[in-house]
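Dear colleague,

Thank you for sharing your sequence with our group. We've completed the structure prediction you requested, and as agreed, I am returning the results in plain text so they can be pasted directly into your records. Please verify that the sequence below matches your submission; if there's any discrepancy, let me know and we will rerun it promptly.
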Amino acid sequence: MAKNLKRYYQAWELRQQGKTYKKIGEIMGFSKSWAGTMVSFINFKIKYQKQRRISGELKELVKKYPNI
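Please find the predicted C-alpha cells below.
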C-alpha cells in the first residue's frame, strides 16, 4: 500500500479514537484542515465500499470500528 494512504488510515483511526482534527494534526505534523480532509476521504471510501473494491487494511479498520 502507498505510504500516503497509510497516513490517511492513521488519521482516520485517530479520529475513531475520539481525537479532534487539531490533535490529529499535531500528532501527525500537519494542519487540522488537512486532517479533516484525510478523514473525510477514508469515510467516503467506506461509504461507497459496496460499489468499489477497497483494500484489506481498510476492511480490517471498518471491522474494528463498526459504528461508523
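Summary note from our side: The chain has one domain: 4-64.

Kind regards,
the structure core
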